[in-house]
Amino acid sequence: MLKSIIAGASALALTATPALAAANPASSLSVAKSARASAAAKGKSELAAPGAIVGLVLAAAVVVAGVIIAVDDDDDSDSN
Q1: Is residue 66 within 8 Å of residue 11, measured between CB atoms?
Q2: Are 75 and 4 contacting, i.e. CB atoms less than 8 angstroms apart?
Q3: Domain ranges of the chain
Q4: Widest CA span of the chain, in angstroms?
Q5: HEC profile for 30-76?
Q6: Deepest in the core among 9, 33, 53, 67, taking most CB within 10 A?
Q7: pTM value?
């Protein structure tokens, strides 16, 4: 039981860490507030292309499969 709780908690920690690290708390410490100029994009962004979405879905499936394998309590002995 404890093994499955630890496996689930560590899987949650591994998936939540990049989201928490994305915040930039040091930006509020900046003394000078600078204005940023932007230019219009000339082409269509390919960041959310169908291939990227499929890759994200496959990566999520691998994470879920890893958690299921880690949590599986297959303690049945085959040496009978």
Answers
A1: yes
A2: no
A3: 1-73
A4: 73
A5: CCCCCCCCCCCCCCCCCCCCHHHHHHHHHHHHHHHHHHHHHHCCCCC
A6: 67
A7: 0.35
